[in-house]
């Protein structure tokens, strides 16, 4: 592990031991070898990108139960393209002018407690987010964050979609939100970027009524880092394709795949749309296809058991580090992957949780543990992206830093 030579050594860039899970800022996950091989193979011949997206669409449809699918440049770009599709539909003029939405409906309704940094992706396409409800449940000032009627009354002639941030604990239930949206003829966009595993989630949100669902291709699927999947309604995916593919050509010679683009319904050829700056190359599409096929075939229960056992070993190894209290979390319905939560007692350890996290990140190789709970003097150790020898190494470094 630490003494293995990598291309990053040649470049003089420190590598990372990833004990925090699939986080984009430390490069997500390790791509499957077969996906990397597929990318090299893909680089050896030309292909019409629309043909390749059509093939990817069929696979995404098959594994999600959706009508159609599309490979985007990350789940984040999937959200931008979903918003673009809901804004423009099949209107070429709107496609040509996004993200300028002056004079046209451009609102996306979102429960306030679903707002997060990634919703910038929706605004990138030109949408304005209208958030509804309160923070009552999370603050303990009430039993609900948002009532269904609040979503209903927020939907007006200006609304193009409802957006939903999927976590096992998000409220109201997706089915309820979809019912309200559909009663008002508005589609629902779901950010499910990190909601795999469990694998069942590939189809679950669509079954619950979602019109477009975005997943990350660079997290648990272990495809290329810069890929994502958008799955859902055929007409909306067509709008995505029309606004993403570079296909401006002489009208007489314009002949993209019928299912994916539906060019017959258009009065002309779409120009480079708002998605053009979110290009996905043939190598990425092929790598994602291969990774998704392998992800589907994987023994998911065995993988979860492996992570659980590694988390148990990590927890027992960390339990006797002075000043550290550990417990296991997850491995249940709300959170598929078990991880270790460790509380640092700064009076008994050499430093506090913040000091530990910072020191580990400055080492060579860098060691990243989970740092979302430093206010509680807690850090987390996630088994997903660790080999067994790396797990031992992480325990040693934590012990050495706290002693
Ligand atoms: C990771 C993540 C994204 C972005 O996914 P990318 O594939 O990196 O673009 C969006 N939303 C949520 C909730 C995420 O966790």
UniProtKB/TrEMBL annotation:
<dbReference type="InterPro" id="IPR015424">
    <property type="entry name" value="PyrdxlP-dep_Trfase"/>
</dbReference>
<keyword id="KW-0663">Pyridoxal phosphate</keyword>
<feature type="domain" description="Aminotransferase class V">
    <location>
        <begin position="36"/>
        <end position="326"/>
    </location>
</feature>
<protein>
    <submittedName>
        <fullName>L-seryl-tRNA selenium transferase</fullName>
    </submittedName>
</protein>
<keyword id="KW-0808">Transferase</keyword>
<dbReference type="InterPro" id="IPR015421">
    <property type="entry name" value="PyrdxlP-dep_Trfase_major"/>
</dbReference>
<dbReference type="Pfam" id="PF00266">
    <property type="entry name" value="Aminotran_5"/>
</dbReference>
<dbReference type="GO" id="GO:0004125">
    <property type="term" value="F:L-seryl-tRNA(Sec) selenium transferase activity"/>
</dbReference>
<dbReference type="InterPro" id="IPR000192">
    <property type="entry name" value="Aminotrans_V_dom"/>
</dbReference>
